[in-house]
Design goal:
Elements lengths: L19 E4 L6 E9 L4 H15 L5 E8 L6 E8 L2 H8 L2 H7 L6 E10 L29 E8 L5 H9 L13 E10 L2 E9 L2 H10 L1 H10 L12 H11 E9 L8 E8 L5 H16 L6 E9 L2 E8 L7 H5 L7 H5 L13 H8 L2 E7 L5
Length: 380
């Protein structure tokens, strides 16, 4: 497991603002809430599985405490809450293979789950609110969002199948945008980099409801079945556990989103892939996030909007730009200037980290191929 304890830049706490609508890098403590619906009769099995998991998670860096609660009204409803020093160590753990193995014994007990994650903004109490260094690790001000939730999935296909997979993913029929009265699919952008596929989605409303809605659509099921033989990770649609594990490993969470507040309707959408050195994924994501924040303050920047995704040393940066990528390679790569290329390359894996300062070469290596970019029609 990778724990993030050192910071890329100055440790000054990030100030929430109207243009930074999502970030895990403000240093605040994190509260995680997991709502669990347990099968009738499986409560004791679930409790035993949780107690075993609790022994293991207690030693995970960044973990502070956790509680297991059972409903006083419905014995099948349980609540797990945990507190973490900050979001990055939690994300490193929850997206790790260690976590996949750790929670496996619990899944035979569980009918449904829902995970919610919150930065701690205010609290009552005294010394327990302080970290070991004496800091109050609280978000300084509320974040103002834009009502859109951003998430991505990534997986790899067998070498040699890239062209066939690209054709299948480019030609499927779009699913119904309306999920329910409160949730709607806004945009789906699909890219490839070699044999890696990244599908980024934007949802207004409930992300989990939207993902379940998409999975049920016949046109989506058809394309998923069509690409199944080409996947590097086995997936058996007749085995729900196989499907669950596949999509657990495919999840690529958004860790930072910033917009410069300018009109992006005519902007071009691009994605860049940054393969990080082992254990450096979150640090690389934070570096890009900090530099995109600085770019958002510059009205001359060609990058109008940026979302950084990270999981297990896979870092993807989705950007909306004006003028194309090649007009300003440094800005396109997320660098304030060419002099910062050395800092970036120290975090990239050896294949991408040739320290020749050639921004055009780095941009070519990072650029992902756009397969499809679809927006839903505005609501009437």
């Amino acid at each position: 497991m990778t724990a993030i304890s050192e910071r890329v830049s100055d440790p000054t706490e990030q100030q929430a603002s109207k243009r930074v609508s999502q970030s895990v890098f403000d240093g605040s403590r994190l509260r995680v809430v997991l709502l669990v619906d347990v099968y009738d009769g499986a409560q004791q099995q679930f409790l035993e599985a949780y107690e075993e998991m609790g022994k293991q998670v207690a030693s995970v860096p960044g973990h502070v405490s956790d509680q297991l609660c059972q409903s006083i009204e419905n014995p099948s409803q349980w609540l797990i809450t945990s507190e973490w020093e900050s979001a990055p160590p939690f994300l490193a753990w929850v997206n790790s293979e260690e976590h996949v193995r750790m929670v496996e014994p619990m899944h035979s007990c569980i009918r449904d789950t829902r995970s919610l994650r919150f930065h701690i903004v205010r609290e009552t109490g005294g010394e327990e609110a302080r970290s070991a260094s004496g800091e109050r690790r609280l978000q300084s001000s509320p974040r103002i969002g834009d009502g859109v939730i951003r998430h991505a999935l990534t997986f790899t296909v067998k070498p040699g199948s890239e062209r066939k997979v690209a054709e299948l993913l480019a030609n499927y029929k779009s699913p119904e945008a309306r999920v329910d009265d409160t949730t709607r699919l806004c945009r789906t952008s699909l890219f490839m980099h070699g044999n890696r596929v990244v599908r980024a989605i934007e949802v207004r409303g409930d992300l989990l409801a939207a993902l379940r809605h998409v999975a049920r659509q016949p046109e989506i099921r058809a394309v998923e079945e069509a690409i199944n033989p080409y996947l590097e990770q086995h997936r058996d649609f007749h085995d729900q556990e196989s499907v669950r594990v596949f999509f657990t490993r495919a999840a690529l969470p958004a860790v930072h989103h910033v917009t410069g507040g300018q009109d992006i309707e005519q902007a071009q959408r691009h994605a860049l892939y940054y393969p990080a050195r082992t254990g450096m994924g979150m640090r690389l994501a934070e570096l890009l996030a900090r530099q995109d924040e600085r770019a958002a303050d510059d009205p001359r920047s060609p990058v109008l909007q940026s979302t950084v995704y990270e999981r297990d040393d896979v870092v993807v940066r989705l950007i909306d730009v004006r003028g194309g990528l090649d007009a300003d390679p440094a800005a396109a790569l997320g660098l304030p200037d060419a002099a910062q290329v050395a800092e970036l390359t120290t975090l990239l894996d050896e294949g991408a980290a040739k320290k020749d300062g050639d921004l055009s070469r780095l941009l070519t290596l990072a650029r992902m191929d756009l397969i499809t970019d679809r927006r839903s029609a505005p609501e009437a």
